[in-house]
Each structure stands twice: as C-alpha cells, then as structure tokens.
Amino acid sequence: MDTTTSPTASPPSGWLKHIRWDSKGLVPVIAQERGTGDVLMFAWMNREALHKTVELGRAVYFSRSRDKLWYKGEESGHVQDVHEIRMDCDSDVILLQVTQRGHEPGIACHTGRHSCFYSVLKDGAWQEVDPVLKDPVTIYK
Q: How is domain 7-139 classified at the architecture level of CATH?
C-alpha cells in the first residue's frame, strides 16, 4: 500500500473509530481499479477485515454468507493489491483503490468477469454486456 496514505501511522483504534459501522459491525466497501477507474465489486468489511487489509496491503473482506473473513483471491488467485483506502463524507462507506491480479485483464467477479457490474438495464430487461474472461468452473476447482 502507498505509504503516503497508509493509516498504520496511528494506532488501529485511532482510525477505525471514525468509521460509522452498521448495527452488525460492518461497513460497505467498493473496490475500484486504480488504472481504469472501473468499479470492480461491492463487499463488506468488519473491523478485523479492514485492519487486515491495511496490515497486508491486499483486500480482506467479511463474508456474510460464510460468517468469516474472506481473503480476496484465496480460492481463485484473483488477489486485490490495495493502493489507497478512502472513506466517504458520511464515514459509512469505504473505497479501495486496487490492482486486480491473477488473470489479465484482472478478474474480480466469481462469474469470471472483470467486474461484478456486468448487467445493464436496457429496454426494461437486464442484459449481460461484459464477457466471461475465464470459465468459473476452471477458477474454483
């Protein structure tokens, strides 16, 4: 992570306490590709996940369905290196500036696409507009 923006200079409680966590202790997180500005995905973090993200310099989320930390890329190899962490004006959303690794171009979505936002509402129907870059069956063996 870029040292100019790393919050590790202050103790964890110093910067974590400024975030408005929801009633379950979670905050929504948007992952945005550093080079293109593409929004790759949306996920959740708890305090431990955000602290681990800062500590490791790679995205660690909280999986609500599995009720545990989710180290992005732990199964797929599609790791997100974190360059910058931003908080919105209401202190209740986190934005990660990331480089998506593991496949060229980077795959962030479990469907094998670059971004999780591959469907567009057009003429009253959702249409998939982005290609599958790698078959998910071969990603998650």
A: Roll (3.10)
